[in-house]
Amino acid sequence: KFRMPTADNLVPIRLDIETEGQRYKDAFTWNPSDPDSEVVVFAKRTVRDLKLPPQFITQIAQSIQTQLTEFRSYEGQDMYTAEKIVPIKLDLRVNHTLIKDHFLWDLNNYESDPEEFARTFCNDMGIEDPEVGPAVAFAIREQLYEIAIQSVASAREIKISKKGRRGAEHAISSKGGGNALDLMKLFRYNSSVVRKRKEWYVYEPIVDILSNEEVDALEAREDRNTR
Amino acid sequence: MEMPQYDPNTKPEFELYTIPSHSSWFRWDDIHETERTALKEFFDGSSISRTPKIYKEYRDFMINKYREEPSRRLTFTQVRKSLVGDVSLLHKVFRFLDEWGLINFGAVSRGDDSDNRDSSLGDTELKNQVKIEEGAPNGVRVVALPNSLKPISVPNSGADGSGNGKVAVAGETGVKLPPLASYSDVFGDLVKLKGFKCGSCGEQCNSGCYEYSKGSFVICEKCFKNGNYGEDKSKDDFRFSDLGGNSLTHGATWTEAETLLLLESVMRHGDNWELVAQNVPTKSKLDCISKLIELPFGEFMMGSAHEMNSCPTGSLNSLKEGQSASSENQNDVKMEDQVHDQMNESKQNGDAATEEPPAKRKRIAPLSDGGSTLIKQVGGLDSVLDNLEHYQTFLLMDCSDASFEVAHISTMVGPHVTAAAAEAAVAALCNESSCPREIFDGDEDYLANGLSSPTMVSDPERALQVDASKMEENQSETQDASSEKNDVPLNLRIRTATATALGAAAANAKLLADQEDREIEHLVAIIIETQMKKLHSKINYFDDLELIMEKEYNEMMQLKECLVEERIDVLERALKTGVSKWRS
């Protein structure tokens, strides 16, 4: 059944609202089992805390609601639950910290915890900015969410195709998203799970602390890209 | 052939890596039950990406990676880039190894680990390894997980290497439990410290001293810094030993008022250290306890506090008497100690003794001078003076109380002891000068009537002999005053004399008994330790023996095979050449 493949079933919500020359960008996780009335309360509180003009309230609430509904539309549908190890890429900037990372995640592990991963990550890399952790966790969740949606779609396809064809396994591995790694190849008996040294840099996290000018430059570039 | 216990990564000489003793099940070649249960995912065949082989690769890689640099703390992020697999699963393996001390055991612990770590492994370095040597002890500060069997113990600091010390406990063998609230190293005082005097400048080394490793020379910190090492000694020869670390002087200086407060609150509250510590505002609970033990009869007081409170008369008077009794005991102990030459204790005792008298002195302001002359006769010491002054006051107030006091002392110490002491004291006093004899002749009857039949107790006797000798030194003084004593009523003299005797006896007996007890405990502890060591070495010996036997056995088997082959060979040849009849 469809759900976020993590220990906590939280939906990643992204907001990007612009009204009257003010732009509000945010990203956080929401618990879909909270009552919908909470959405409006949250919107009001956010506007008050950040001192935004009141038009934002309705817009924020709407945006959240839409995303929630979308999430709920997937609920109840079947998800393809065979094992899938997908690569997750991180490429984000939080205030002054730039993070690039690449690692593998098991979609079938319903006990996985992006927040714990983010915590370990920040501790190990010695990141002091407290906003980085949640941002990392959010990025992971977002990607997992997308993949979960894809798996729903692929599950649907498989159901259709299963009626006709045999050898559904191969279909799965090709249809389950180009992301999924070929487990057979990776975890074969002869091969080692220890990567070759020359490949280590691919999967190594890179954390850069930017100076103010660089931050400004990057922000300007991001704005240009999104418009 | 390879011995499974040894680290296959060894270079010509073995490198020892430290792991805690509760992880001694670990083997490179094998996967243990502990691992199987903790990391089920690898062993239930649920996926092709999780097999025992893969688990072993993860595990070996992580441990080897850590051992490349044992002093630095291996982080998960460093290993995950090199391993293929789900990061959550890798993290689980990593955490498992971390908690069992198979990695990061000797590493510096991280500061902000409260959130995501269940345990933080301490910084020990014991040269001990998978090759389980003598019960590796030390501490790993662990919060016990539900299915783990780890002991909870106190972290120790490493003697060398990166360990940044937490609590510096002299790392001995055996798992140590966290110290009790009243833990104090009593034996350290008795055994080690004989009051270090600096060899070069002659001062007392209080906080730390440098010991000359090739001899028994000791210099204080100042001298060491200044370079006064003494002749023929160089800087490197000196080893620093910190006396202030575990010693009893936590709160350092105890003023008279504080000690008085402490004693009073102990009298009132007995064993309730919280209240005692509250009443003595500047000293912590631990300080109070240690100070009380230091004081002679500190423990005696703790016991007597209970007695006092349950005393039938239960009047304030009795409390005062008790206090004065113990104070006089302390004072007498001061006497005794100087005789027995226990330097450190005596200083502290001396402090205690001098603290008490001033406090008590205030109470005896209204004193007639007549009594003082008698006192001079009996002993020339200030302490005795005070004792008797106390009794003077009580006697003046209420004669019956004094006898009660005497009776009370006898209940505390035992009537036999007091009687013996009284007799001995009387005898001693008689030896001094002939005059008192007249007086005390009458006294003896009193004693015989008042107390039970005397039995000689050697200790008090001995002490009192010493007492007597001291008194004899002051004999010249007493002779002068002998004439004056006639002024004082007989009753007073009797009572004061007996009081002194009883006090002296009680003091010494208790002191010696306590000493004995402590020594016994200490020795028993040493014995037990040695026995343990013996057993351990025996076990090791037997293990070695087993190995040797195994090897021999294998060799024998091989030899046997060889022989069998040869024999077959011979037979074949024999048959080939057509020897028809086999002659053995």
From TrEMBL, chain A:
Localization of this protein: Nucleus
Superkingdom: Eukaryota
A Gene Ontology BP annotation from the UniProt entry: chromatin remodeling
Keyword tags: Nucleus, Transcription, Transcription regulation
Secretion signal span: none
GO CC terms, sorted: nuclear chromosome
Family under the similarity heading: Belongs to the SNF5 family.
Protein name: Bushy growth protein
TrEMBL record, chain B:
Protein name: SWI/SNF complex subunit SWI3A
Organism in which the protein naturally occurs: Citrus sinensis
